[in-house]
Design brief:
Length: 650
C-alpha cells in the first residue's frame, strides 16, 4: 500500500515538475510523517493495552473478592483468553456477583427490620452484626434468621403467658368483686392485646398482681370454710332448726359478709346458752379422753372441766382442749387404733373365759356353739400377743421421737397390761373365795338343819333330745321283761321310809278309789340319778340305812338289782357312751314298714309324759308299742322295787 502511494506521489510530483531533489525531500518528509503517525498509533495501542490490563487486573481482584465473600462458587478465569475476551468475561461474572450482593443487602435490611420490630415488642436487644461490611455473609444472615426465630418463639410463649394471666386476673377480680383500678390493669384487660408490651418486666408485674389476688381469694375461701364450719357446729350445738340455717355458696366478699353477719348472730345466741354449750363440750372432751386413753392426772390437770363457772373463757378453753386432743389423736391414730384393737381382744378373752365358766352353756350347744367358742378362744390367744408386740414397737418408736414416755390411762404400756392381768387373776381368786364361802355356809346349814339345797348340787342338764330319750327307753326295754309302758303301772305299794322321805324326785303313785288306774306324779325338782344316788348314800351314812340298792356300786340303776353286768343282745349295736346325735336315725327295732319322724317322736313322748297326770287302766303286756319293744321281749315281770326305779328314769 505504501509502495502504491509512493508511486502515485512520484507521478504527481513528476507532473508537477518537482526535481528529484525536491521529490527526495518530499519523500523524506513523507516518511517522517508516516513514522510519526505510526508511532502515535503504536503508542495509542500500547496505551489501550495497558488500560485493558489494568482494568482486567482490577476486575479480576473484585471478582475473586466477591466470589469468596458471597460464596458464589463461580469458576476461575481462563488465562488463555485475550485481553478483550477476558475483560468481557470478567464483566459478566461481576454483574452476577453484584446482583447477588444487592439481593443480600435487601434481605439483610428486611431481616433487621423484622428483628427490630420483635425486639421493640418484647423489649429485647438486637443481635450484634458488623454493618460496615459491604457484602453480608451467609453466617450473618443465618444468625439474624435464628435470632428472629427465637424472638418469635419467645413472643408466642409470652403471649400465651399473658393470655393465661389475663384470664386468671379476670376471674380473680370477679371473685373479689373488684373493678379495674390502675392503668396497668386497664391495659391488661383491654380487648386489644397489642397495647400491652410483652416485656419481662410487664409480665413479672402481671404475675405479681395475679399472685396477690390469688392469695386474697385463697384467704377469703379459707375464711369462708372456717366460718361455715363454725356456723354448722354452732347450729348443731344450739340445735337450730334446719329451716333457719343460712345457705350460701361461693367465697366472694358479699358471701363473706353474710357469713360474718350470721356468725355474729350465732355468737349472741351462744352467750345466752353458755352452760349448755360447755356441757356439750365436756361430753365431747370425755369421749376424746376415752379415745386417747388419758389418765386421771391429766384429766385433773384440766381445771375448767371441774369448774362451775360458765363463761366464754371456759367454753374457749374446752374448745381448745378438744381440738388439741383431736389433733393428737389424728397424728397418732395408728397407735390408738392398735390399743383399741388390743382392748377389744382383751374384752373378748374375758368374755370367753366367763362363758367357759358358765354351766348353762352346755344346754344351748346348737349349731356347734361350743366349737365356735373354742376356735374363737384359740384365735384370741394367738392374736393378743401379736398385737401387743406390734404396740411395743410403735410405742418405742414414738418415745424415741418424742423423748417422753407414752402413757395409757396414766401408765406405761407394760404396767397397763400387767395391771389388767393382775386384776383378772385377782377377780378369779375373789370368785373362787366367794364360791368357797357359799359352799362353807351351805355345809354349815346342812350340818345344822340336816338338809341339802339341791339347787346348789344340780348338775348341768343336757339339752332336750328326743333321740336320747328313745335311746334310754330302748336300753331299759332290753333288760325288762315287759314294755316301757308296763313299768308305769306297777301295783300300789308303800315306799320304804328312807327312800320315800328324802328322794324328792321319786314319783308318787296315787290310786283313786274305785278305779283300776294309777296316777304317777313327779316332784317339780328334776335332777339326775347320780344326784339321787349321792343323796341316798349321804343319808345312809348319817342315818345308818341299810339297803342293797343304796350300797350297790354301779353306774346305772339297772346294775343295782342285777347280779351280772348288762350286755346288749346279740346282733344289736352297743349303746354309745357319748350323747346321741340330734338327727333321727332308723332304729333296728322299728318294723320295716314303720318309721317315726322327729315330729312323731316328739308327739309320742309328749303323750307319754301326759300319762303321768291322767288316770288310765293297766295296759296288757301284748299292747306295748312294737316300735319300742325289744326283739328279745319276754313275758316276765319286773319286781316292784325295780319298776319304781325305772319309773324315776322315764
Amino acid at each position: 500500500m505504501l509502495e502504491n502511494a509512493e508511486l502515485v506521489l512520484k507521478e504527481t510530483w513528476n507532473v508537477m515538475g518537482f526535481s528529484e531533489e525536491e521529490q527526495a525531500e518530499r519523500t523524506v518528509r513523507l516518511y517522517d510523517a508516516l513514522g510519526s503517525h505510526l508511532q502515535e498509533i503504536v503508542n495509542g495501542e500500547r496505551s489501550l493495552k495497558r488500560k485493558y490490563l489494568k482494568k482486567i487486573a482490577e476486575n479480576s481482584k473484585r471478582f475473586y473478592e466477591l466470589n469468596a465473600e458471597l460464596e458464589a462458587g463461580l469458576p476461575d478465569l481462563d488465562d488463555s483468553l485475550g485481553l478483550l475476551q477476558l475483560d468481557r468475561s470478567l464483566k459478566n461474572s461481576l454483574k452476577i456477583l453484584y446482583e447477588e450482593v444487592k439481593q443480600r443487602q435487601e434481605k439483610l435490611n428486611e431481616l433487621r427490620e423484622r428483628e427490630k420490630e420483635l425486639c421493640d415488642y418484647l423489649k429485647e436487644d438486637q443481635i450484634a452484626i458488623d454493618l460496615q461490611k459491604e457484602v453480608p455473609s451467609k453466617g450473618d444472615m443465618a444468625a439474624i434468621e435464628r435470632c428472629i426465630q427465637t424472638l418469635l418463639v419467645e413472643k408466642e410463649y409470652r403471649l400465651k403467658t399473658f393470655r393465661r394471666l389475663k384470664k386468671s386476673l379476670e376471674q380473680l377480680m370477679e371473685d373479689l368483686e373488684q373493678p379495674n383500678k390502675s392503668r396497668f390493669e386497664v391495659n391488661v384487660l383491654s380487648q386489644m392485646e397489642e397495647l400491652f408490651t410483652l416485656s419481662q418486666a410487664n409480665l413479672q408485674q402481671l404475675n405479681r398482681l395475679v399472685d396477690g389476688y390469688e392469695q386474697k381469694v385463697k384467704e377469703n375461701k379459707q375464711e369462708c370454710l372456717e366460718l361455715q364450719e363454725k356456723i354448722q357446729n354452732m347450729y348443731s350445738r344450739l340445735e337450730i332448726d334446719p329451716s333457719e340455717h343460712l345457705h350460701v355458696f361461693g367465697h366472694t366478699p358479699s358471701v363473706l359478709a353474710k357469713l360474718h353477719e350470721e356468725w355474729q348472730r350465732l355468737d349472741d345466741l351462744k352467750r345466752e346458752n353458755l352452760s349448755r354449750l360447755i356441757n356439750q363440750q365436756r361430753r365431747q372432751l370425755e369421749a376424746m379422753w376415752e379415745q386417747c386413753y388419758v389418765g386421771e392426772d391429766d384429766m385433773q390437770a384440766f381445771q375448767p372441766y371441774f369448774s362451775d363457772d360458765y363463761t366464754e373463757e371456759s367454753l374457749e378453753a374446752h374448745d381448745k382442749e378438744v381440738q388439741r386432743l383431736q389433733a393428737y389423736y389424728e397424728e397418732w391414730k395408728g397407735i390408738f387404733m392398735d390399743i383399741n384393737k388390743r382392748d377389744k381382744l382383751w374384752r373378748k378373752f374375758i368374755m370367753l373365759e366367763e362363758k367357759s365358766n358358765d354351766p348353762n352353756r352346755l344346754k344351748s350347744n346348737r349349731g356347734g356353739t361350743l366349737l365356735q367358742e373354742e376356735k374363737e378362744r384359740s384365735r384370741v390367744k394367738q392374736e393378743l400377743p401379736r398385737v401387743e408386740r406390734k404396740l411395743e414397737d410403735l410405742i418405742a418408736t414414738w418415745e424415741k421421737q418424742q423423748g417422753r414416755p407414752f402413757l395409757i390411762e396414766g401408765k406405761r404400756m407394760n404396767d397397763y397390761i400387767v395391771d389388767q392381768w393382775h386384776h383378772y387373776h385377782q377377780q378369779k381368786e375373789q370368785e373362787k373365795e366367794k364360791k368357797h364361802h357359799v359352799r362353807a355356809k351351805q355345809l354349815e346349814i346342812e350340818s345344822r338343819m340336816g338338809t341339802r339345797n339341791q339347787s346348789l348340787l344340780q348338775k348341768r342338764k343336757l339339752p332336750r333330745n328326743e333321740t336320747m330319750k328313745s335311746s334310754k327307753l330302748r336300753r331299759i326295754g332290753e333288760d325288762s321283761s315287759c314294755s316301757s309302758f308296763a313299768t308305769m303301772h306297777s301295783p300300789v305299794r308303800e315306799r320304804r321310809g328312807v327312800l320315800h322321805e328324802f328322794n324328792h324326785n321319786t314319783p308318787t303313785i296315787l290310786a283313786s278309789p274305785g278305779s283300776k288306774a294309777n296316777t304317777i306324779t313327779f316332784s317339780s325338782d328334776n335332777t339326775s340319778y347320780s344326784h339321787f344316788s349321792e343323796e341316798l348314800m349321804r343319808r345312809s351314812e348319817h342315818e345308818k340305812v341299810r339297803s342293797s340298792v343304796i350300797n350297790a356300786k354301779s353306774r346305772t340303776p339297772l346294775l343295782a338289782v342285777r347280779p351280772t353286768p348288762r350286755r346288749p343282745p346279740p346282733g344289736l349295736p352297743k349303746t354309745p357312751m357319748t350323747l346321741p346325735r340330734m338327727a333321727t336315725r332308723r332304729s333296728p327295732r322299728l318294723n320295716s314298714g314303720q318309721r317315726l319322724s322327729p315330729r312323731n317322736l316328739s308327739t309320742h313322748w309328749s303323750s307319754r309324759r301326759n300319762l303321768s297326770t291322767q288316770q288310765r287302766s293297766p295296759a296288757p303286756a301284748h299292747s306295748t308299742t312294737a316300735a319300742f319293744r325289744s326283739p328279745y321281749h319276754t313275758s316276765s315281770r319286773l319286781t316292784s322295787t325295780r319298776k319304781n326305779k325305772l319309773s324315776f328314769l322315764i
